[in-house]
Amino acid sequence: MKTPNKPSIDLVEKEQALQPKAVPDAAQADAGNGDARNADADRTRKPLPNVQSGADAEGAAPIAPPYLQNRELSWLAFNERVLDQGADETVPLLERLNFISIFWSNLQEFFMVRVGSLTDLALVKKHIVDSKSGLTPAEQLAAIYERCHELYPIQERTFEEVRRLLREHGVSHLRPKDLNDEQRSFLTRHVHQNVMPFLSPQIINARHPFPHLENGALYVVVRLDEDRDAAKKKAAKAKGADKSERAEKADKAKNLGAEGVTLGLVPMPRQCERVIELPGEGMQFILLEHAIEMVAAEIFSMYAVKHTNVVCVTRNADLDATEGSDEADEDYREHMKRILKKRSRLAPVRLECERPLSSTLEKLLLKRLGLKAHQVYATPVPLDMSYTWGLGARLPEKLRAALTNPPFSPQWPACLDRNRRIIDQVAEREVLLSYPYESMDAFVQLLREAANDPTVISIKITLYRLASQSHLAEALIAAAENGKEVTALFELRARFDESNNIEWSQRFEQAGCKVIYGFRDFKVHSKICCITRQTDSGLQHITQLGTGNYNEKTAKLYTDLSFITADETIGRDATEFFRNMGLENTSDNYGILWVAPLQIKPMILANIDAQIERARAGRPCGLFFKTNSVTDKDVIEKIVEASQAGVPVTMFVRGISCIVPGIEGFTDNVRVVSIVGRLLEHSRIYGFGPREDMKAYLSSADLMTRNMDKRIEIAWPILDADLREQILGYLDVCMSDTAKLRELLSDRSYTPLGAFARRGNEGETELFDSQDFLIKRAQQRRLEAAEREASRDVARRRAEQLMATNEMTEREANGKDVRLSDARASAHEAEVIAAAANTAAELAVQAAARAAEQAAQAAKTAEGRTEGGEHEKAALEADVIEVSIAESSAPRTAETQLSRVTTASEPDARKPSLLVRILSKFVR
């Protein structure tokens, strides 16, 4: 491997040399028997250095405080911790390979953004000095390139070890020299049939100038010599062409930088599979670029191939999105599209190759790319490691299980009942979801319910990074199509997601959403959603605030917290926030939210001051920050002041930490830890006070100047005691980690993996992986919640069955009661009929007796009359009297009595007197 050209001085040593040594104070030495947080701490506090942003009037170099370090070198230390996971024997082999791939992709973006930005600064602001390290942009670049030359060999050793171990498990990554005859024959056929049709080789010589090499693309570069026989034929046809030959040589020197050099260049075809599986035992494969190298002689058959290599150029991708954005007649989306086109043409900042370049080829490439020798990195590790993520899918299930982590899917939150509407549950109580242990599906379901809820009036949301296939976005579009007022604030400047955001913003507008783009000078990085409902008691706001993006893909990999509340104060603040966003107003007129750029930093500083006052008063105090990075100098200096006052400060920083702990007299009471593991720690938590009395805030903002001064960010308090305890319990688990947790030391190194591991009774190492524990706990809680839900379902079904049985029994009982009542009524009616009949009979007998008496008396009266006509007339009158009594007197008496009986026995006297009519007929 070729030794890179190194800078003339060790810039890391320079950075350390610029830092003054702290002189121990005698009072500090005598304070060991007193309270570390008492007033004696004031006497040990050193004055903060007045760090300048450049040389002073006399040209003296700025003084770098000893408790600060350069952010770029700190980031490289973070990426080395990522690479350490590739060497961790407790991590499954394919996962180790994936960590090497993450190291590669992180470094790729670092060069594109941070190195690109410093390159621009080195050209236009050469003398500006980093206040945290005292280095100019050029010096920072030199330190970065040198540190990377140290990291590449570590990456190579780690990759080769994992490659060797995978081969032992039947997964063989082969190179051309490793192939047998059968595999060579197979590969030749495969390339001819499936690769050659898509190749676009080209020649670089005097007639074909050097082409543009795309950022991050792989190229097979071939050093060619013209075939001697062909050259003789050409010479025979070109007699007397001395003048043209001299011109050609001049063109070669102009175009190539090395006279007489002819190159072949083959871009990797995007249409072809990068991994080519080969015949043989287990899974054996070769990468596409190496297959193309093997057939280079066929591709350039007119030339003699001297040697081949694979190269990759990294270009500056740090764009100024505000450049030219003042054009009044240009749509902002179109402006961003135009800016993005520039990215692919920006200057190179790094050249990678699989093997050391020949001096001729290196000279040629460096000249054409505008690079220096120290910007070239030669490594046998594949220059594009993205292929690793698809290897697992190619393996048999049993082997894949042995080489990867146990599968994990985010769980449905145990605090939410799947059988009830979420919008009703969050209206009743606040909810805190922990991604990826708990699923983002619950929030997506909330949006779906809001889209179809007739009480919902509007949905407003900020969108920074959306997944390319987003159910969340589809739910918002559905809400707009259902007539809801949907406002989406898109941040089109989310780096490397610009194109995706542009496409989604167009879809949102087409669906009828109101799309706004925020501020010209501030990125909108906050994560907030507000659902407004019209309820019987008035308007209700359901607000969601998150520490991470609304991205279903990253929500399965990043640890974040999502807070959902119906608190009216937060709801009013959310409404005011969106109103201000529409007006490009950086207001600080909020009741409970802290909104950057005007509030977050001042409120953090004020709360740190409060803890300093508690320490000086001898009261319990403390500070806790969980963040991705710490770079803001104002916050760091305030933390140093707190440490000097005796406030214990714990900082959980995954990535960049510009504060160095353990520096005597400055950061004695500061502890900085980091976890790099299976999941990416991403949540931001601020804690003020001792644990038992800590005020907990969640935020979208890291402790970085860009977040607090140049972005729209939100921080909010967790006031519910149960949710606060949930956060503190989560932090307790993280800080108890002995497998992945590492501590930053005063010499700027980190403790090794497993440094906090415990020893078992038999001397074995006991490791506690906090992320693994939280995954299993989420699964257990989901299982318990499912059991509770199942029990509730069983109880509910039993209750429904019991109710149904009771209703049936009641109906049957009611039916029996009806039938019994009918029988009783019939019996009563029969009794009435019998009584009426008896009464009618008695009346009839009485009437007959009276008629007989009247008839006898009439007969006696008629005796004295004349025989014949008079006697017959008298008899007829007697008959008339008898009939008259029978037809009038007796029936009317019976009907009157029956009517009275029926009226007394019927509940409703207005019912038809059918019984009366029947009895009347019977009596008649």
UniProtKB/TrEMBL annotation:
Which EC number(s) does UniProt give? 2.7.4.1
Q: Where in the numbering of this chain does the Polyphosphate kinase middle domain appear?
A: 182-390
Q: Glycoprotein as a keyword?
A: no
Q: Where is the active site?
A: 525
Which intervals hold domain Polyphosphate kinase N-terminal?
Answer: 69-172
What is its EC class? transferase
Q: Where does Mg(2+) bind?
A: 465, 495
Give positions of region: Disordered.
18-62, 887-907
Q: How is it modified after translation?
A: An intermediate of this reaction is the autophosphorylated ppk in which a phosphate is covalently linked to a histidine residue through a N-P bond.
What ranges does the record list as Low complexity composition bias? 25-36
GO CC field: polyphosphate kinase complex
InterPro entries, A to Z = PP_kinase, PP_kinase_C_1, PP_kinase_middle, PP_kinase_middle_dom_sf, PPK_C_dom2, PPK_N_dom, PPK_N_dom_sf
Which SUPFAM superfamilies does UniProt cross-reference here?
Phospholipase D/nuclease, PHP14-like, PPK N-terminal domain-like
Gene Ontology terms: biological process: polyphosphate biosynthetic process
Domain Polyphosphate kinase C-terminal: where? 422-581, 593-753
PANTHER family annotated for this entry? POLYPHOSPHATE KINASE
Family the UniProt entry places it in:
Belongs to the polyphosphate kinase 1 (PPK1) family.
Q: What does this protein do?
A: Catalyzes the reversible transfer of the terminal phosphate of ATP to form a long-chain polyphosphate (polyP).
What is this protein's record name?
Polyphosphate kinase
Record lineage: Bacteria, Bacillati, Actinomycetota, Coriobacteriia, Eggerthellales
